Amino acid sequence: MNRALRGVEWPTLALTALCYGLWALGTTALAEFWLPLGMAVTIVTTALHSSLTHEALHGHPTRSPLLNAALVFPALSVVVPYLRFKDTHLAHHRDSILTDPYDDPESNYMDPAVWARLPRPVRAALRFNNTLAGRLLLGPLIGTLAFVAADLRALRRGAPRWALGWALHVPAVALVLGWMAGPGQMPLWTWALCVYAALSILKIRTFLEHRAHEDARGRTVIIEDRGPLALIFLNNNLHVVHHMHAAVPWYRLPVLYRENRQRYLGRNTGYFYRSYAEIFRRHFWRAKDPVPHPLWPDP
Fold this sequence. Notes:
Keywords: Membrane, Transmembrane, Transmembrane helix. By secondary structure, the chain is mainly alpha-helical.
């Protein structure tokens, strides 16, 4: 028993239990007491659950991948199957292909040749999506449509791993829908708004995690934020630290960064923001960069 417990990361396990407890309260008692409070708690815990899912696919909080997956099995954020998230995100962790429109599954850039063929309204929507305001308003919709469309194409070609991911996602979503259909829950339309808002919050994190840069090591950001967003994102704002030490749990990343700050800032060639407030000021209405990959040839 002691050997089994030796590798358990108790802060992550405790936070996971707290997340589920607060989510359950937010969707029931708190929503009945005062709906805005219930919605706020549901939004935050849904976003936090996604960050805990990210921890699970990186091997936390236990040494068992199966147990880690089971701990985050209920799909609180609904749209992305755990197994598909795991496969695409671990592929994304190959720094040499970061931001590549084809090889990086999490790239927000597009092949300039594909961009040139898009209808003008689509290009306008994608340009707006490259502002922080657009990413908050349209990002969850655009990201989900693009993700599902790509997986449907893969499924039509015959992709058993993709099919397994979506098959396992059905009971994961059913658990959440079953809870929401029970007595005393907040209205379903309100919960749907909460899920969308939680996905919007997560888009703040991914908005400029990576940039187009000739040197792979200069593509990953550091955001020295220590506020509530950093907690919701489980310190993933220290993103280059996470990419260099993906096996390190979230609660140890700030210490690693403080002890080696100049090393990490040198590592990513100074791709750095002091806070999310700075990002809001600089990029809420102004795009951080173009949609077509700026280092790829323009046709």
